[in-house]
Amino acid sequence: MTGNVPAATRTLTVLRALASAASPLTAASLARDLGLPRSSMYHLLSAMEDAGFVAHFPEEGRWGLGVTAFEVGAAYLRHDPLERLARPPIQRLAAEVAQIIPAVAHLGVLHGSETLYLLKEAPSTPVTIVAEVGVRLPASLTASGRAMLADLPAAQVRALFPRNDSFIDRTGLGPMTLRSLNALLAEERARGWAQEDGFITAGLASVAVAAHDHGGRPAASVGLTFRSDHTDERSREALATCARRCAREISRRLSGSSSSIR
């Protein structure tokens, strides 16, 4: 990191480094990892400490995140950032797929072993679904849930579904063991999108694609739900392509890339 990098950029880089560390870091290790002179790092940390963004632990000779950083994070959550960033793309997705078939567009997140639905955009032609805003459904059965599960480490999936009784049956369809879930996730991971047909409600099907945060972790999923008898394999692939474009736009917005700034 050269000397002509703006101070604001240096400050944000230090905050990200501290946030991603498992424990507080020394100024020397920060300077080394970020390519800054030690003297510059000490001046930067001192200014950040004065503002409350970092805390110094003198007995350990280490630095960690301060109270102000926590307050900023808490304020971020109060602003419902995911819903606000995702709503316009979800609305555009609903309008786009209306040209193909009547389908409900929705945004979901993982809530333990369940899918929690945050947004829903319905077409002018009604499609009755159970994925209303605020509803939670088994992640193993929903396309939205499995789109996110497919991008999680195997150990995390196993922790979410440790026993066979961790699985819930709604219609007699869908994975009921960790082995069958992993097989389905592997298939959907290779395809690039998840789908379910009658796992939640008989006669309804869904496709979904995960959206990711700046660290590449699945932050949410973009899903489309429609009547099973209104689609074939080709039209479902077309719907999945629309969902993928929407998920990519939401990912860009979540990462704060310049392409998402208007």
UniProtKB/TrEMBL annotation:
<dbReference type="Pfam" id="PF09339">
    <property type="entry name" value="HTH_IclR"/>
</dbReference>
<keyword id="KW-0805">Transcription regulation</keyword>
<dbReference type="InterPro" id="IPR029016">
    <property type="entry name" value="GAF-like_dom_sf"/>
</dbReference>
<dbReference type="InterPro" id="IPR014757">
    <property type="entry name" value="Tscrpt_reg_IclR_C"/>
</dbReference>
<dbReference type="InterPro" id="IPR036390">
    <property type="entry name" value="WH_DNA-bd_sf"/>
</dbReference>
<protein>
    <submittedName>
        <fullName>Unannotated protein</fullName>
    </submittedName>
</protein>
<dbReference type="GO" id="GO:0045892">
    <property type="term" value="P:negative regulation of DNA-templated transcription"/>
</dbReference>
<keyword id="KW-0238">DNA-binding</keyword>
<feature type="domain" description="IclR-ED">
    <location>
        <begin position="68"/>
        <end position="256"/>
    </location>
</feature>
<dbReference type="Pfam" id="PF01614">
    <property type="entry name" value="IclR_C"/>
</dbReference>
<keyword id="KW-0804">Transcription</keyword>
<feature type="domain" description="HTH iclR-type">
    <location>
        <begin position="5"/>
        <end position="67"/>
    </location>
</feature>
<dbReference type="GO" id="GO:0003700">
    <property type="term" value="F:DNA-binding transcription factor activity"/>
</dbReference>
<dbReference type="InterPro" id="IPR050707">
    <property type="entry name" value="HTH_MetabolicPath_Reg"/>
</dbReference>
<dbReference type="GO" id="GO:0003677">
    <property type="term" value="F:DNA binding"/>
</dbReference>
<dbReference type="InterPro" id="IPR036388">
    <property type="entry name" value="WH-like_DNA-bd_sf"/>
</dbReference>
<dbReference type="InterPro" id="IPR005471">
    <property type="entry name" value="Tscrpt_reg_IclR_N"/>
</dbReference>
